[in-house]
Amino acid sequence: MNGQTVLKEGLLEKRSDGLLQLWKRKSCVLTDEGLCIYDPKASRSKCKVLPFDNMKTVDCVERKGRYVYFTIVMADSKEIDFRCLEDTTWNAEITLGMVQFKNRQAIQSVKSRQLAHICTATAISTMS
C-alpha cells in the first residue's frame, strides 16, 4: 500500500476455488488502486492484489439473510465471489473505488491526448 490512500479495511469472506467452494475469511484493504486480500493469520506483505485497472465489474449483488453476496469480474473474465455482512457496504465501496479509478484514468488519457495535440500543433507552426 505504498503511497496509496486506504479507503476501507476489514473482513470479507471469499469463496474458495476448490471443489467444495468453502467461504474463507480474509482480511482486506481497499485502496485507491484496488483491493488487497490476505489471510488474517499471515503477514500483510503476502497479499493478493486485485487492481482496479484489471477489474471489469462488481456484479451479482444479492442479499440473503445477513449477508450481501457479490462477484468481482476481472479483465480476463475470471470471477471471484465474496460475501460480507450487509452493514459493511464492501460491494458499494469497491464499486465506487473502481469507478473513481477508471474516471481518473480517462481524465489522464484525455489530458495526454490534448497535450500531444498541442505539442504537434506547436511543432508544425514553428516549422512554417
Automatic annotation (TrEMBL):
Stretches assigned to the PH domain: 6-101
Keyword Cytoplasm set for record: yes
SUPFAM superfamilies in alphabetical order: PH domain-like
Keywords, comma-separated and alphabetical: Cytoplasm
Alphabetical list of CDD domains matching this protein: PH
Gene Ontology terms, MF aspect: phosphatidylinositol phosphate binding
Recorded superkingdom: Eukaryota
Protein name: PH domain-containing protein
Cell compartment(s), UniProt: Cytoplasm
Entry's Gene Ontology cellular component terms: cytoplasm
Organism: Scyliorhinus torazame (Cloudy catshark)
Signal peptide interval: none
Pfam families per UniProt: PH
Main subcellular localisation: cytoplasm
